[in-house]
Amino acid sequence: MKKKRILSGMRPTGKLHIGHYVGALENWIRLQDEYESFHLIADYHVLTTDLNTDSIYNDTMDMLIDWLAAGLDPVKSPIFRQSKIKEHTELNLIFSMLITVNRLERNPTVKEQARALHIEQVIYGHLGYPVLQAADILLYKGDAVPVGEDQVPHVEITREIARKFNNQYGKVFPEPEPLLTKFPRLPGLDGSAKMSKSLGNTILLSDEPETIKAKLKKAVTDPQKIRRNDPGRPEICLIFAYHKRFNPTEVLEIEANCRSGVLGCVDCKLNCSEKLSAFLAPIIEKRKYYENNMNEVLDILADGELRGKKVAQETMKEVHEKMKFG
Ligand code: TRP
Question: pTM, whole model, 2 decimals?
Answer without folding.
Answer: 0.95
